Predict the 3D structure of the following.
Amino acid sequence: MYKSSVIAISAFLLSSCASLSPEQCKNADWRQIGYTDGANGEPSARLQQHASACAKADVKPDLEAYLSGRMEGLLSYCQPENGFEVGRRGRPDSVGDCPPHLRAPFLDQYRQGREINGLESQVQNLRNMLQNDQNEARRNDRRMDDIRNELRRPNLSPERRTTLLNEIERLLDRRQDAGRRQLAIQRDLDIAEDRLRFRLREMRR
């Protein structure tokens, strides 16, 4: 029952821009809210957000219960394995809120996670670039097909024929440029993917 309540509060806090509604303030279990904030790595300023939200309902947070729950949550958040996942997602580290004996191992794993986050972002960016280039190449090919079909028309004016031939020549040049560019992007992508796999193996991930 306790765990399910924590999960429900966590889902709300992560999905809502507001801190707490007036009704939630009136029925708040401040220990559970503190635990959820700690387990999610929320900064200490989160309590002030709760206080501001609950002031509208004339409710004051139970500071002792909140801080006690938050410390329990931080003990879960500040585990080294979670540090890696937090870094990999590109989130702020919140290491300053961790108990002193957990800060160094958490931060070490967080930095490794951030490194993987950077490598994965590079891979994704290159994949997006390659996909965009391939989409553009397909659009150009379709346009060239349209031009060829129009050039077959018997009543095509000389001026229009010249315009179409010039356009298809430009598209052919563009295709060559795109082909060279795609080869270069693919090469960079292969290198980035190899680097990512190598670092994950080194980290035994």
Observations:
- Confidence is low (pLDDT under 50) at residues 1-17.
- Residues 25 and 59 are 6 Å apart (CA to CA).
- The first helix runs from residue 2 to 15.
